[in-house]
Every structure is written in C-alpha cells, then in structure tokens.
C-alpha cells in the first residue's frame, strides 16, 4: 500500500496538479481583487445602496423583514464570469491553437525532431573547460 502511494505521489502529474492548484489560488486572488476594486464599484454606482455587495432586497415576513443579499450574488457571478473569461483567453484559447497547429503539422507529415543531447565525452570536455576557466 505504501509503495503504491509513493508511486502515485512521485508521478509528474500529481506535482503538476499541485502547482496548478497553487497558481490557480493566486490567480483567483488577483481576479477577486480586480472585481472588488474596479468592477463592483462601477456596477454599484447604478444600485440604490451605492455598493453592490451591500445591495439587499427587503422581503417582509410575518415576524421580521428578511434582507436578501442580491448584490453579493451578483458580485459572485461577476467574479466567476471574469475568472472564466480570463482563463479562457489566457490558457484555453492559446492551448487549443497550439494543439491545432501541432495536429496540422503532424497531418502534413512534418516531424519535429528533438535536439540531440551531447554525448558523455562532449559533456566531460565542457566540464573540463569550465573548471580550467579562471574565476573572476
């Protein structure tokens, strides 16, 4: 069981996923700040309370009045749409274009060759040259 867990953790996909989650959280914070500092005040200028997040609709009840936070819901929707829009144009669209170009190259028979790695002897010569170079 431990061996299987170790293999799962050491796979590159898990590490890539962890990096994506961390970057996604930071990215969400930037989008939230943008929406809260710029978009919500602009929209808030057109609501009765003057602040979108504090805009409520009063719903009279039997014993008390309920304050429905319609502004908070609209603010969350704007944040979601802004995040989705930026993710689409910054990540999804360029990746789709890259995949289309790559598929077109493969369909045309163009094979991308990876650059050849230096041989062991070439690496040793480079290391020797670096070690012989005077330090500045």
TrEMBL record:
<keyword id="KW-0472">Membrane</keyword>
<keyword id="KW-0406">Ion transport</keyword>
<keyword id="KW-0812">Transmembrane</keyword>
<feature type="transmembrane region" description="Helical">
    <location>
        <begin position="12"/>
        <end position="39"/>
    </location>
</feature>
<keyword id="KW-0407">Ion channel</keyword>
<comment type="subunit">
    <text>Homopentamer.</text>
</comment>
<dbReference type="InterPro" id="IPR001185">
    <property type="entry name" value="MS_channel"/>
</dbReference>
<feature type="transmembrane region" description="Helical">
    <location>
        <begin position="59"/>
        <end position="92"/>
    </location>
</feature>
<keyword id="KW-1003">Cell membrane</keyword>
<dbReference type="InterPro" id="IPR036019">
    <property type="entry name" value="MscL_channel"/>
</dbReference>
<comment type="function">
    <text>Channel that opens in response to stretch forces in the membrane lipid bilayer. May participate in the regulation of osmotic pressure changes within the cell.</text>
</comment>
<protein>
    <recommendedName>
        <fullName>Large-conductance mechanosensitive channel</fullName>
    </recommendedName>
</protein>
<dbReference type="InterPro" id="IPR019823">
    <property type="entry name" value="Mechanosensitive_channel_CS"/>
</dbReference>
<dbReference type="InterPro" id="IPR037673">
    <property type="entry name" value="MSC/AndL"/>
</dbReference>
<keyword id="KW-0813">Transport</keyword>
<comment type="similarity">
    <text>Belongs to the MscL family.</text>
</comment>
<dbReference type="Pfam" id="PF01741">
    <property type="entry name" value="MscL"/>
</dbReference>
<keyword id="KW-1133">Transmembrane helix</keyword>
């Amino acid at each position: 069981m431990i061996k299987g867990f170790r293999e799962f953790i050491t796979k590159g996909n898990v590490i890539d996923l962890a990096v994506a989650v961390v970057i996604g959280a930071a990215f969400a914070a930037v989008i939230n700040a943008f929406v809260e500092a710029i978009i919500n005040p602009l929209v808030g200028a057109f609501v009765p309370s003057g602040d979108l997040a504090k805009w409520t609709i009063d719903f009279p009840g039997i014993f008390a009045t309920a304050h429905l936070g319609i502004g908070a819901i609209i603010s969350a929707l704007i944040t979601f749409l802004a995040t989705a829009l930026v993710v689409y144009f910054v990540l999804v669209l360029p990746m789709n274009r890259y995949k289309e170009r790559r598929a077109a190259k493969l369909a045309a028979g163009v094979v991308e060759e990876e650059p050849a790695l230096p041989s062991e002897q070439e690496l040793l010569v480079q290391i020797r040259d670096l070690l012989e170079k005077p330090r500045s």
